[in-house]
Specification:
heterodimer; A: mainly alpha; globular; B: OB fold (Dihydrolipoamide Acetyltransferase, E2P); Chloramphenicol Acetyltransferase; 2 domains; five-stranded mixed beta sheet
Chain lengths: 81, 392
Amino acid sequence: MTDAELSDLVARSLYAVAPDIEGEPIDPNKSFRAQFEIDSIDFLNFVISLHQATGVEILERDYPDLQTLSGAVAFLRQRLP
Amino acid sequence: MIEFKMPSLGADMEAATLVEWFKQPGDRVERGDIIALVETQKGAIEIEVFNEGVIGEQRVQPGRKVPVGTVLATILSPAKEPPSRPAATTTEAIEPKAPERRVSIGETPALAAPPRLRITPAARRRSADLGISPERLSPGPDGIIGLEQVPSGVEREPGLERAPRSRGAGLDLDEMRKAIGAAMVRSHRDIPHYWVVHAIDATPVFEWLEKQNALRPIERRLLYVAPLMRAVALAMKQVPELNGHYEEGVFRPSPAVHMGLATALRGGGLIAPAIRDADSKSVDELMSAIADLVPRARLGRLRSSEMTDGTVTLSNLGEGNADSVFPLIYPPQVAIVGCGAATLRPWIAGDVVAVRRVVHVTLGGDHRVSHGRHAAQFLTRLSELLAHPEAL
């Protein structure tokens, strides 16, 4: 997958768990929490959604890498075959 | 025949708008079935029926705003023949008695097909809050109106009515803030509050969570709030003076703990829908219930029982937040539990100073029903329970 496709996938996962922000532009380097008040429950649902969309195993210690759009794209690029 | 009435979904609800019928005349219903969607100050609420039977006549049509207590439909006993569909002339809604303020709900904007405007739900809500018609906003570079395109200032365009609300949005934050404000005024005026705070070492819970989550597939991982809620529910069982409803001078303790969970909404607003029988749900069941409830609360899709059943409320500030909170009780409840962020602190363990994850738990109680001693009993029990999360 290209970075653009990964970026779309991450954005779709975020919108899926927080439909009230659907379509909002996402600043790639700002944390989801700071931009959209994403809390721990939203974040867990987001990580589950990423896992289900890609099959990538995500451990709790990976969570800090997934706080931003650019971080999540880099993480998935590295883990996807 | 049973008259199915517009329920009161909170201390301050006077009226609500029927948005949609999910059951039609002749349809069988059972206790707990969702039969209609209504829009209140706290969002769109799915209304459940508490009787078994067959829908008779629908007396209120979608789009009508009616006061609490208005008969919405009749429900016939299951043995009776299903009725014929009522004539349209008999379905006249009862008009609200008071003149409607600001929001014109009567003209069913929800059901008319609006011109398709490419605007995000959050931007639509903010523009409605500001009294700006979305048609007057310029889309961003991608052709979509997002939050960026809505002025963040508070200046309201004069002479413009609030934008009609779309069905899907469900939440009117402005109205919700008013409803919360009214409930809190009542709480502060009527309830003689007291607060007792206790610092609890929650390190065992976090260590237990880390071990559990390392073993669990991602879909089954737990958040701290789940064992916390379990412990609060169990501790509540020990102190009946803190769990129930106080109405018309009488306290009715509740045998079960239906736990309201204070949930912040993006853009402001707060709602505390209840998880029923929290005391008899396992940590895993509570986690599933919370993961289901919180997104629905944010979308304004709660059920009527979730709005009214709470017997006590948990307000957990969450990570990265302030150390402690002194919340107001949500009437007719008689207690509220406020948890600050669990943060690393110096802590005396035995005769050494250790670094521990400490949470300040506040019990706010109603002095008409309970006293500091009850609060202390609760907090002591909670502290014991959190020391052994594996036993929760």
